[in-house]
Amino acid sequence: MAVALIVAAGSGERLGAGRPKALIELAGRPLVQWSIDALREVPGIDQIVVAMPPRAPAPAGVIAVDGGDSRSESVRRALAAAGEGDPVVVHDAARPLLTGELVERVIAALEGDDRADAAIAAAPVTDTVKRVDPAGAVTETLDRSELWAVQTPQAFRRVALERALDLPAAELARATDDAGLIERAGGKVLVVRSSEENLKVTIPFDLRVAELLLAMRRGPRG
Ligand code: CTP
Ligand code: MG
Question: Does the pTM exceed 0.90?
Answer without folding.
Answer: yes
